[in-house]
């Protein structure tokens, strides 16, 4: 039916969108250098709500690595999301909706919430309204570091988005080395009393860069995960260090 209604040829690919790759789907004459104009390819989708967030994170990684459809250049996307998710993607520093998704999307793309479609426009009618969001990949990301490192830092800090940033940031370090969060934030020139949602993408970039440098100086730090120490302290107690029992003096930062 769709093929008959279309004025141009339509090809269907059936599969799991989470594992599907668009690496070789398009003709070579559509390929453009990343710094050139946009290629003649567009990705448009009405996404199922249950996969929309993991899918856009997967595609942000593909954009960062210039893989899949983005091996052809800066292919833009126009996608639908639950309205609340769309608002998180465009949220700027200080906004209540600011979250991990905001940083991950805005770092690699210019993100624009174009308009909202009321739920009653769909059959069957969803319980929420739908936001239409347009993504245009940036020529250069704001934070020009590996995707996994950025994801690690941003995800860790937004675990406790209402806490002062030094508390979740300290979880990047093993329990007995939590004092290193002082050095991390000093190097990043980020005020430790700010909340994660108050930080700009650039400030997250400064934290990521400082964390990368510390990982290079301390082999094994990057391999550490919070789950490696099941008896870890609660975020509220991060300022209390084991051993000598010293407290972190954040007034010095």
UniProtKB/TrEMBL annotation:
Q: What is this protein called?
A: rRNA adenine N(6)-methyltransferase
Pfam families with a match to the protein in the record: RrnaAD
The record, for SMART domains, names: rADc (SM00650)
Q: Which GO terms describe its biological process?
A: transcription initiation at mitochondrial promoter
| Cellular component terms (Gene Ontology) | mitochondrial matrix
Q: Which gene encodes it?
A: LOC103517177
Stored PANTHER family: DIMETHYLADENOSINE TRANSFERASE, DIMETHYLADENOSINE TRANSFERASE 1, MITOCHONDRIAL
Family designation: Belongs to the class I-like SAM-binding methyltransferase superfamily. rRNA adenine N(6)-methyltransferase family.
The enzyme class is transferase
Tell me the domain of life.
Eukaryota
EC number from the UniProt entry: 2.1.1.-
């Amino acid at each position: 039916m769709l093929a008959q209604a279309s004025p141009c040829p339509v090809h269907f690919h059936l599969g799991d969108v989470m594992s599907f790759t668009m690496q070789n789907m398009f003709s070579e004459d559509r390929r453009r250098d990343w710094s050139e104009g946009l290629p003649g390819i567009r990705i448009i989708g009405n996404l199922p709500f249950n996969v929309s967030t993991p899918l856009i994170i997967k595609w942000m990684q593909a954009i960062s690595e210039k893989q899949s459809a983005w091996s052809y250049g800066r292919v833009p996307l126009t996608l639908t999301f639950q309205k609340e998710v769309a608002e998180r993607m465009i949220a700027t520093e200080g906004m209540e909706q600011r979250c991990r998704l905001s940083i991950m999307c805005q770092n690699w793309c210019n993100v624009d919430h174009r308009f909202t479609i009321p739920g009653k426009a769909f059959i069957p009618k969803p319980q929420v309204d739908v936001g239409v969001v347009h993504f245009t990949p940036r020529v250069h990301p704001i934070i020009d570091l590996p995707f996994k490192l950025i994801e690690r830092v941003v995800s860790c800090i937004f675990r406790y988005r209402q806490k002062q940033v030094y508390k979740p940031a300290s979880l990047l370090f093993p329990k007995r080395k939590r004092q290193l969060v002082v050095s991390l934030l000093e190097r990043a020139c980020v005020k430790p009393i700010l909340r994660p949602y108050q930080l700009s993408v650039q400030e997250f970039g400064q934290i990521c860069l400082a964390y990368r440098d510390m990982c290079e100086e301390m082999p094994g730090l990057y391999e550490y995960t919070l789950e490696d120490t099941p008896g870890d302290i609660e975020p509220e107690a991060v300022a209390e260090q084991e051993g000598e029992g010293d407290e972190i003096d954040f007034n010095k930062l």
